[in-house]
Each structure stands twice: as structure tokens, then as C-alpha cells.
Amino acid sequence: MGRGKIEIKRIENATNRQVTFSKRRNGIFKKAQELTVLCDAKVSVIMFSNTGKFYEFTSPTTTTKKTYDQYQKMLGIDLWSTHYERMQENLRKLREINNKRRREIRQRMGQDLDDLSLQDLRGLEQKMADSLTVVRERKYHVIKTQIDTYKKKVRNLGEIYGNLLLENDAKCQDHPHYGLVDN
After folding, report:
1. Any bridge partners for residue 42, and if so which?
2. Centroid of chain to Cα 117
3. What is the DSSP string of 158-175?
4. What is d(CA 101, CA 108) in angstroms, rounded to the nearest whole number?
5. 17 CB-contact burial (10 Å; exposed 0-12 / middle 13-18 / buried 19+)
6. What is the pLDDT along the chain (183 residues), one digit of tens a residue?
7. What are the MADS-box domain coordinates in residue numbering (predicted)?
8. pTM here?
9. Yes or no: is domain 14-62 CATH 3.20.20.10?
10. Which residue, 52, 59, 42, is CA-closest to 21?
């Protein structure tokens, strides 16, 4: 009995899709290995699953980097230069952001204020006033929490003291020679 023809479309069931991916991945890797052995070809296969997992197969005599380099040489393009340029651009942006943040920190510490205009100084003053308000609110919240905790502890200690006095009075009534003595 032969295999039926299937319609090529996305498999909706996630479990079935993962099983199919795994089986087909193994089949492709097997074919790549057969091609390497039978034809002495240099083969490199790279796959990413929909979960982002990385799978690769390379011929025993080569590495993925060697395959990329050979591919670049054959096509006459440089795959790494565009990637390097993007990384350099990203690094430049991050350095710019870092320098801006460092300058803001220095300005908030009262340094590096000479090149600021009156409007910039007012803006900085407003930011610092807002920050001071937030810090004060937090400080008052912490103090209030500590006071409330202290009051609860004092109340609990008062209750414990009262309970101990009641217990002592009850014992004193049972045994008159036990009791509290004034001074």
C-alpha cells in the first residue's frame, strides 16, 4: 500500500506539528548524511524550530563556519559585514544613550552645568524637585509603617502584660502566699 498525497499547509494541532517537525528534521539530516557519504559533498543544514530551538548538521570534514566562508567566496558576498555593521550601529546607539545618562547623573549631582541654558536648568530643577517629592513620600511611608508596627507591638505587649496580671491574680486567689508585693 502506497502513501497518500498530503496537502502542503500548516498543521494546526501544535502536538502534531511538533511530531511532524521532528520526523522530517531527522529525515532531512539522514539525507544530508547520505549525500555526504555517497557523493563526498560538504553539507551543512541549519534549522530553527518554532520554539526557537537550534538544530544543525555538518559534514564530518567541515564546520558550519567553513561552509559559510566557502558560500561567501562562491557568491562573492560578505555575510558577516552587514551583521557587523548592524552590531556597530547598535553599539553606537547604546554608547550614545549611555553618555546621555551619565551626563544626566552628573548634572543631578551638580556637575557639568556650565553648558545648560536657563530653560534646561529650570527643567533640571523641576526634575529634582519631583524626585525629592517621591523620596520624601517614600520616607514618610516607611516612617508611618515603622510607627504602626511599633504601636502594634506596644498594644500586643500591653495585652500580654494584662493577661499575665489576670493569671497572677487568679493564682493569688488560689494560693494567698503568692502575690505581687508593692515596693
Report:
1. none
2. 38
3. HHHHHHHHHHHHHHHHH-
4. 11
5. middle
6. 567 887 889 989 989 999 999 999 999 999 999 999 999 888 888 898 888 898 998 888 888 788 888 888 888 888 778 888 899 999 999 999 999 999 988 988 888 888 888 998 899 899 999 999 999 999 999 999 999 999 999 999 999 998 888 888 777 777 666 655 555
7. 1-61
8. 0.42
9. no
10. 52
Q: Is 133 helix (H, G, I), strand (E, B) or coil?
A: helix
Among all chains, which residue has been given the C-alpha cell 570534514?
61
Query: Cell numbers at residue 59, please?
Result: 559534514
Q: Which secondary structure element, helix H or strand E, spans residue 102, and what is its range?
A: helix 79-108
Number of H helices, E strands in the chain: 4, 2
d(CA 133, CA 114): 26
Note the pLDDT tens digit of each residue in 113-141.
Answer: 888 889 988 998 999 999 999 999 999 99
For 176, the grid coordinates are 494567698
Task: List the domain boundaries for the chain.
Answer: 14-62, 78-115, 117-183
Residues in the chain: 183
